[in-house]
Amino acid sequence: MSLPDNSKRVLPGPTDPVALGIDPETLETLDALRSRYGNMVGITKPGGRSAYFINDASAVRQLLVKNHTRYRKGPGFERVKMLLGNGLIVSDGDTWRRSRRMIQPSFSRQNVHRLIEVMADCTVTRAAAWEAVAKEGGSLDITQEMNDFALELILKCIFGRDYEEQILAEGRNPFAFLSKDSARDLRVVMQVRESRDLIAQVISKRRDTTDEMPFDFLAMYMQATDKNGQFFSDAELLDELITLIVAGYETSAGTLNWAWFLLATHPGAELALLQEASASLANVQTPDQQTLTDMHYTQQLLEETLRLYPPVWLFTRRAEQNDILEGCDIEAGADVYLSPYILHRTATYWSKPDEFDPGRFDPEQSQYKKGERPYFPFSLGPRRCLGEYFSFLEMKVHLGLLIQRFHMTLVSDLEPELDLGINLRTRHSIILRPEIRDRQ
Ligand code: HEM
């Protein structure tokens, strides 16, 4: 008599095939599966491929940190590839490893600190325009404002003075379609191609000039070398720069959009933010990095915004090798789905999960130590977001300077609807009315 094989724990799940895309239905489907079967669910997709929904925090950490080499990027990334070529977000294996090693030093804290001035400049320009709107009693499409702010900022950080001299030379921003057109259709792909041509011209001019290289991401990427002393080819450089533009603006813009909405609807949070900003940044034009690091409430407010509305709400991976996560078999070839949005709202991990409460990220109140939180808006492990520190500084500069000048009220009380594409956004723009604060 043979003994049953106890090493294999088959995960519970539906017997009928389940379709999973990168769309709003997928959020509902995954959430319903979790309610019914628990935090680890086995699924069969319509073509017969196995898939797993992993919402167990330790299993997520195990997959992303310890066992990450067993996986590559999963379904949905083909669409992103159309836009980004083979840049860091979509590449895998040796190509990714080489690029990550070459690019990572550009994001050192020291380098990011040198960009704080650009962050402050982009914020101050916006404040001037908002002041004019406030004086006329007008309102702001804050969603569009945040897209424009974050796009302008990343383009200036990448291209430095070439942003104005070459990119805006024709009197329009050729990348504006990125912040305006959310569709990922062929038209956008064509516009990305045109933008690549323009970036190629900027690179070529930089290569030809004898002037000293300025300090910006383009210069750092052009000077980066791999372990054999090789630079990026022009084609690789283009993929990495387009990746940086897209990765660097949409996520921060989305987070700031939600942050302004939450501030307009939570007066206590607005007051706490204002008090911290006034104490730290009154009469400051360009904040220094230590002051920004010490803005603990602002940090907590942003972390809580990212808990409730993580821009990358769904990650997918495809197993390249067999794996065991928390005792459960994941076979090679299977797709794995992880959702920060669902995990961040799972009641076993977070009390009153749908409530906005920045205090839960106060280290003195938090039930979790920082490295153990069931929280992964920037992913975890070796593929963790490279722009995390950059984005916190950008968002702190933006909110810290602007909250001192404006009180915002919502024009419509309707709860914003979620738009769940590759990134989580609001389906309709959030409209706010700015009022100029009395300054002492
Ligand atoms: C609130 C802001 C941001 C959030 C929530 C965010 C989130 C993420 C996430 C979840 C990933 C991993 C995706 C995956 O593995 O499937 C990622 C990767 C990445 N992010 Fe961010 N991001 C943000 C801002 C930025 C900024 C401002 C930059 C650049 C300036 C940036 C650059 C990148 C890059 C280059 C990668 C690819 C890393 C790799 O695969 O090695 N991100 N980001």
Question: What structural class do helix, strand and pairing data support?
Answer: alpha+beta
Helix content: 40-55%
Radius of gyration: 23 Å
Q: Rough shape?
A: globular
CATH architecture: Orthogonal Bundle
Strand order of the largest sheet: 1-2-8-5-3
Order of helices and strands: HEEHEHHHHEHHHHHHHHHEEEEHHEEEE
The level-1 CATH class: Mainly Alpha
Instruction: Please give the alpha-carbon distance between the first and last residues.
Output: 86 Å
User: Could you please say which CATH topology applies here?
Assistant: Cytochrome p450
Q: Which whole number gives the mean pLDDT?
A: 92
Poorly predicted segments: 1-6
Structure write-up:
By secondary structure, this protein is α+β, with helices and mostly antiparallel strands. The model is unreliable at 1-6 (pLDDT under 50). α12 (234-265) crosses α17 (388-403). It has 17 helices and twelve strands. Protoporphyrin IX containing FE binds at residues 88-89, 100, 244, 247-248, 251-252, 255, 306, 311-312, 315, 377-379, 383, 385-387, 390-391. Protoporphyrin IX containing FE binds next to α12 and α17.
